[in-house]
Amino acid sequence: MALNAESVPMRWPAGPLDIARREKEKGFSADTAEVLRRWLDPASLAAVQGTPVNCLVVSWAAGLPGDAGQQQALKPLIDKGREAGLGFVGLIEGEANRPAALAAAQSAGLSAVALEGDVPASAGVPVIPWSKSAQVRSTASSPVLGISDGLWPGLPQAAAATGGPTNLPWVDSNGAVLLIARTLAPDKTVWIGFDPPQQANLAAEAYALAVADPASHGARWVISLDDALRADLTAKKQSAADTWKKLIDTAVFFEQHKQARTYQPNGLLAVMSSFTGPDWDAGEEAINLLPRIRQPFRVMARAAGASFTGLQAIYYVDQEPPDAGLRKKLMAFAQGGGTLFTPSKWPNPEGSPAPAEPYLLFNMRAVGKGRLAVCKEDRPDAYDTVADIQNIMSHRNDLLRLYNAPSANFLYETSAQGGQGVIHLLNYSRRPGSDGPLFYVKERHKSARLVSPEIASPAELQWAPQEAGGAELSLPRLSVYGAIELEK
Amino acid sequence: MKQDLTRRELLAGAGALLARPAWSRAAAAPTARVAVARCKTYGPELVPAMERMFDQLGGLGGLVKGKTVAVKINLIGVRWQRLGNALMEDTFWTNPQVIGATVRLMGKAGARRIRVVEGPWSTTESLQEVMYSMNWKPQDILSAASNVEFENTNYLGQGKKYSRFMVPGGGLIYPGYDLNHSYEDCDVFVSLAKMKEHAATGITLSMKNVYGTTPITIYGQDAGVDEPSLRPHGGRGGVFHSATRLPSKSAPQQKDMSLPKDAGFRLPRIIAELNSARPVHLAIIDGVKTATGCETNYGSPSRPQAAVNPGVLIAGTNCVATDAVAMSVMGFNPMADRGTPPFATSDSMLRLAEDLGVGVRDLGRNEVVGTPIKEVVFDYTAVREKLLAAQKKG
């Protein structure tokens, strides 16, 4: 099967290379090695039959003596899988002999290889750039971009008992890096790789969240199972089958709702950056934190020339000031009534000081009908920055508010014409709260429908109009994921 | 309601009182008048009910005419965590209608300036912003009288420096507190509280509301070590509940580090001494709609919560007396102390405040006017038992 936007990937560790790479790890056992051997058996492919998984990512070359043996050992699995309509992607890592690995991949009929570092001009086989999140660029011809350093989503183990400055717990999410990747490579499908924590005895909900976190951000997780689950699945244990079913049901759900992947994040605030070099951190941190303060936002690449229509504010992140053309466009936005947030390096700021608006982190300047907010500090705290931006923008204009879901993030996306929208709700605690989540929605909509892998069928939600305007939507308690489909 | 003493005179008097032994200070603590009104809704009946209560207390004019008034409201906790679908203002927070009515009646009584104050959780946002985030209309409060302002007192805010309030007699835990300037700038200090239970202190009424005057920049989890931080981050638990960290060194420090670290010991004392250091001139308790169980959404199987409608307002010229009446309305004995509900695991903040000479909790020594207490009793213990029984049934 050729690699395309519909490819649903799963990491398929099997064979001598995976054993060689793993056997130096603490806790690696003979049983684990045996499972890795057994997953070479074409019969093991039965696990993905009838599931959306149609592309297996196998270890192909790592610059170890076992590379050639690995490729040889995989042959029966690949042949049988291809007969069954599965695609195979070979992962080429480390100090691998790339020309040899690419030639072997072509010869073995792999759909693609996933390659760290520079992509060769002519590889003879499609190449998925397999990069760290900060290095993702849309330069390759492959329809898929890979991010290799995803996070296992959830509440961080070490900080589970503590809250952030808002007293909402910190959460580990891949949302920020995926939204950036989508912005930088709008025509690509983004895959993200992360492995489950080993020896964690993961609940089925943990796997459901691992699927939902990337999927709700328009990307695909390269499904990866922990050793215990893989062993138990091999041994046909019921508990493992149940966990696998939950994972697959969640993946099926997102395949059935793939229309939402065409939607774009929406909000009154845009975060604009090149998302490169030293500016990547500040942009990523802002996008990571905005969901924690419940501020819907859009992401804009500096060079893209995106429309500012419907925005109330733009946060220009980069230390390097914009070129003259972009600065003119940004200032026109502010003069027209918007608020432009800039870093401290903003030479010759336009407008006049507005001392009546004292904020801790930004000096406010009046420009036309709008405002220019220049940061007072060269290296401001990321949380304080987004908190002040939200404060200056004012809650008066909030499009959405979320209550009763302290461990949840939401992502608001709308269709190109704005007639349809979706609010993805991800519960990183993986446990339903004592009360169901509650959304305030400012704008009037014709309908709101809850969809979730956790409910049998879509449920129409009732609008509870609020005295001061807007309406609230009450959701049932959700363990991991639900989405509100909105129609105007 | 007369307020003829200046703040200096008031504090001097309190200082002399504190020189006496506790039993003697308690005996000499001021008694007060407390008004009770039935009020089932925040609708048209609210303003007349409040006006009637203030008249029964002697009228607001004597207290606020020509004065700057600070009204400490209660916007406790993480605002994104409601009790089910119930609104914050109908459960944990002072209702905006009650705030607006208070401001309106104070303006009508001739207040020169009214500053609505509170330290909302972990933010430098203005109170207007916090209200907007709850879909309130802060402009309704701002326009309810002339010269109405808001100030977030969880940090320095509009001030240039923090104001120091020493506890007359030297204090029980801390000798004094550094607070936002708004608590010094005012001639009249009003505690506009909600009628609630509290997980650590049993009750949270007008006295406990004053606990929220303490700035997070000094008393919060991420407060500066030497000087106050610029921004409020986190809660007060580490400094006040458990003494796992100290306030910023710029503020008065704990008198004796060997004191128990149990919140049931510390919090009632801190609340009592705060009310002694920054006396409340008018206590108003919103018990129209509220929550049982806890002060915010901290419920647990043993402390189930419910949104309730006791339909009562209480106001008085002394915070101890007013809270004592509120306790009676909640079905508790105001003379109760540690071991007896609502003070199952804490000391009585009322008794401690009485010992400091702040006021008297014995209803027989205070004057209760308006609707008789027995007509408005809303039994919190009965609600809890009902919730526990329902929980047991599953």
Tell me the number of helical segments of chain A per DSSP (H or I, 4 or more residues long).
11
Could you say how many structural domains of chain B there are in total?
1
Largest sheet of chain B: 8 strands, mixed
Low-confidence stretches of chain B: 7-12
Short description:
The complex is a heterodimer of chains A (488) and B (394). Chain A is an alpha/beta fold.
Architecture overview:
The complex is a heterodimer of chains A (488) and B (394). Chain A has 488 residues and is of the alpha/beta class. Chain A has helices at 16-22, 30-38, 67-83, 98-108, 175-184, 204-216, 227-234, 238-256, 279-289, 324-335, 382-393, and strands at 9-11, 55-61, 87-92, 112-115, 127-131, 144-147, 189-192, 219-221, 264-265, 269-273, 297-301, 313-316, 339-342, 352-353, 362-367, 370-375, 400-403, 408-414, 420-427, 438-441, 447-451, 459-460, 463-465, 471-474, 481-487. In chain A, helix 10 (324-335) links the parallel strand 12 (313-316) and strand 13 (339-342). In chain A, helix 2 crosses helix 7 (227-234), helix 5 packs across helix 9 (279-289) and helix 6 (204-216) packs parallel to helix 8 (238-256). Chain A is globular. Chain B is of the alpha/beta class and 394 residues long. Chain B has one domain (7-393). Chain B contains 16 helices and 14 strands. In chain B, a hairpin with a 3-residue loop joins strand 8 and strand 9 (202-204). The longest helix of chain B has 15 residues, at 263-277. Chain B starts with 6 loop residues before the first helix and ends with a helix. The relative contact order of chain B is 0.17. Residues 7-12 of chain B have low confidence and may be disordered. Chain A binds chain B through residues 163, 165-168, 294, 358, 360, 384, 387-388, 391, 394-396, 398, 401-406, 434-436, 438, 440, 464, 466-470, 472, 474, and chain B through 78, 80-85, 121-126, 129-130, 132-133, 135-137, 158, 222, 230-231, 233-235, 297, 299.
